[in-house]
Fold this protein.
Amino acid sequence: MKGTEHWTKKGDIKLFLWHKPSAAGGPRGTLLFVHGSSMASQPTFDLRVPGRPHSSAMEWFAERGFDTWCLDNEGYGRSDKSRPINFDIPNGADDLAAASEYVLKISKHKKLLVYGISSGALKAALFAQRHPERVARLALDAFVWTGDGSPTLAERKKRLPEFQAKNRRPIDRAFVHSIFNRDHPGTADEATVEAFATEILKLDDSVPTGTYVDMCSRLPLVDPEKINVPTIVMRGQWDGIASFEDLLEFYRRLPHPDKQFSVMEGISHASFQQKNYMGVYHILHAYFTLPEPAYRG
């Protein structure tokens, strides 16, 4: 399936977007994917792995009638990297504001379906908090709220002074493998991890430190009581980025009655690259296609 590149601006900053349109007639919704801390958008959402059907989440959803988009946050991939800053989570939410404005001018829909993973979930949540009028439904995968009880962040905090001292951190193939080995080795197959690493490293040999600094020292960055849109919180069974208690308290405080909490069996952190990725697609598709209620009271 052919995609097209698009560009928009956030002030003077150029942002790259990638679009794969609906392949099944009229779009069921316009879906915007938001990537995490250590990779750009296309490796995450439009990955191809020989022998692994439907590795591209964008294509899978496009085949089911969704108009699909992703963007590279400032500092990542093809987007502008020129500013001498660490490109933190609030800055990423600003990127989403600019990207959503562009997409909604093209879209047949007045609101977006938004999916964010890891720090991308934090950016998506902050964007929804700031612009609820642009969000039809919100999916937060591998999300963290306060960070309490997170083994991943406990380890990462040991390197906080290093991350605070510079704007970018190097990444390599071994680092990408570590994403899949830190929580529960075996949740992703070797061929997928290798393909993922190859595509990531084509675009970046370093990534911003801002999301790591934020997740280690500035949480919470979002207020669940101000995210008044339909929301699903998706948590991998073995994901170490947030404790169940942290996420359940966040979920409890969400004010919108249309909300779900889903535990994904056999999943650690990077859910679209896991062996059980088709279950992740199913959960997301089911939430994004819920019919409007006949009665609200």
Summary: Residues 168 and 207 are 5 Å apart (CA to CA). The two ends are 43 Å apart (CA to CA). The first helix runs from residue 41 to 45. The chain is about 35% helix and 20% strand.
